[in-house]
Amino acid sequence: MTTPDLSQPSLSQLIANPSCMDDYDPNSMPVEKARQFIRQHLEPVAETETVTLHESLGRILAQDILSPANVPNYDNSAMDGYAFNAADLNAASLKIIGTAFAGKAFNAAITHGECIRIMTGAAMPQGADTVAVQEKVLRDGDRIQFTEAPKPGANVRYAGEDLRQGQSVLPAGHLMQPADLGLLASLGIAGVKVYRKLKVAFFSTGDELVAIGKPLATGQVYDSNRYTLYGMLNRLGVEIIDLGAIADDPLQLENTLLHAAEQADVVITSGGVSVGEADYMKDLLSKHGQVMFWKIAMKPGRPLAYGKIGNAHYFGLPGNPVAVMVTFYQFVRDALLCLMGQPASVPLPMFEVECTAPIRKLAGRTEFQRGILYTDTAGLWKVKPTGAQGSAILSSMSLANCFIVLDDSVGNLDAGAMVQVQVLQGII
Length: 428
Ligand code: AMP
Ligand code: MG
Description:
Layout: H1 11-16, H2 31-40, E1 48-52, E2 65-66, E3 76-77, E4 81-84, E5 94-100, E6 114-118, E7 130-133, E8 137-140, E9 143-146, E10 156-157, E11 168-170, H3 178-186, E12 191-195, E13 199-205, E14 209-210, E15 221-222, H4 225-236, E16 239-246, H5 250-263, E17 266-270, H6 281-288, E18 290-295, E19 298-299, E20 303-309, E21 312-317, H7 321-340, E22 351-355, E23 366-375, E24 381-385, H8 395-399, E25 402-406, E26 418-423
Parallel strand pairs: 5-6, 13-16, 13-17, 14-15, 17-21, 19-23, 22-24
Antiparallel strand pairs: 1-12, 2-11, 3-10, 4-6, 4-7, 5-9, 8-9, 18-20, 20-21, 22-26, 23-24, 23-25, 25-26
Helix pairs in contact: 2-7, 4-7
The protein binds adenosine monophosphate (AMP) and magnesium ion.
Residues 205-206, 271-272, 278, 319 line the site of magnesium ion.
């Protein structure tokens, strides 16, 4: 659980008097600073539920999982071969007195001069502590000789070697992944307590927006933001409430906003948070909530709003399609994971690679250019920008497999410069 930082001003103090915090400048808000502000106001959902192991995939644990048993819970062979006692390593030959299979143990003890045939995963019989692999043994009827003697204790997996009984296996706050399902299954755990799903409502704003399936008139665009938002939210496993595209009409916007805040933990809107003529959102948000409006020192994604409307957290994303995705990944994703129950979220990893094309960039702001990571002829990973980097060019996001993250201090770069990248796709 995050505890409120009492040394920091509250949302309402900050909105009423922005200068109450040193170096707080809503007109040039550094990316990291904005992230920290948002993080201060996030508390994970309180309610939990118990789900089956299958259902726990992608959910966040609300309990510590301790191992109820040793894994493996008996000493067993790591190889197909012969189990015997290391005291017999120098014997001229050993007599085979039986066989142990995985799931079918040899239920007797072996003594001096004896061994058993043993398969991978089979329990070690009493009296045996070492396994000779079958390829390093000469067999003649019911006797074996070592062609290459193993080390004492070789090829045995010991009880508790993976996990000891009582050991912490997964902490509360852990996001369940495929390996975790297997891990808990290996402990015989059938269900776990997870945080309830977060409810996220969103809508687009703009008179120019048209739903797909209808023809476009001049000056109109299809509403694409609700589709990228749907995709990104779906991947996070939240409950999605899509409230449609709302025209730039103060009354309709007000109704939708209040309806959204009543039923969701988080409300996300796109468009209308800058200061154009039809940008009514700002007034509405000031009327109904406590919302901070920032010009983030970044590209794309300059206007961004964060705050609370009633109990709901509110994110006002820019309208431009690439800016929506970048601000979602850089601010909203992190915040949602925290609200879902992940404690201090781990920053996304960054890697430094050579960029093989020149980059135009203004110092003084962070840029998230869209990049393509590729291997050169020598098999080395390098990156190049996708091409035009306008915040309305959504094809750049489809082409990209990474963000090239250029921080405030970076200016124009020549081809061959080293840059930081954040990979968009992962294995799991
Ligand atoms: P705004 O922030 O409302 O001024 O919008 C900035 C730009 O993003 C304008 O060109 C809008 O047409 C465009 N835009 C806003 N919302 C959407 C949307 N849902 N889908 C596609 N483009 C949008
Ligand atoms: Mg608009």
